[in-house]
Amino acid sequence: MSPIKHIGVAGCGAMGLPMAQRLLAAGFNVSGFDVRPLSDFGAFAQHMDASPEALKACECVISVVRDAAETRALCFDQQALFAAPPYPRLLVVSSTLSPRTVSALRERLPEAVELVDAPMSGAPYGAREGTLTFMLGGDPDAIVRLRPALEAMGESLFHIGPLGSGMTVKVLNNYVAASNVAATRRSMALAQRANLDPALLRQVMRASSGNNWYAENFDAIDWSCEGYDRGNTIGILEKDLQCALDIEPDVRQPLDDALLDALRRLQSL
What we know:
3-stranded mixed β-sheet; globular; 6-stranded parallel β-sheet; 2 domains; 269 residues; 9 strands; 10 helices; N-(1-d-carboxylethyl)-l-norvaline Dehydrogenase, domain 2; single chain
């Protein structure tokens, strides 16, 4: 198995751009694509292409687009990366999608294209630092080929099992993460109403049973003070929660709807 050298990154946003930069710094040949103008990418613009055609020459494409609709647009519709050959022989989905969407994607892709689900956790600052956690689903040989690239972007790699299993673990992880965000923000609001410093509350939580990733990393997380907007990270967290609920769409619990409602009610700090 020859190592992967030329990698395309589709969706160079808050996560995709620092991931592409980490790959470039590690010595990979990187081609970036995004629907935004090249002027948005500063010094990295020289590695971006205004057309997705550049991705067709890549051995592997990592998709970090927002959601299922943008994934379908990339693969089959507007950008149509896999509509006709030549096309990359390995697609790595690092967007957070429903596991059922991953299965549907496999059915539409050409048989010659290998698919790996590799959603990640760690927020944009983790992408910048190369400390992401990847949850992997797919063929072991494909993941072995991917490992050097993944290690350039992350420090914790978990091969969960067959295709779709990485995404299942990711959306379940994000269910818990969404719960922590909603509970922490609610506790901070109650602390303020009690004339207590929310920062002191978080300090106590970090040393106590209320500790969680969001509270512990509050000052480093780019979006920690965001209120709900469908286009921001809290909106993405809501989308991820919907993906988790799609695992068993016919069975909803009160907690599920309460959590969705709590995220949608968040106000900017």
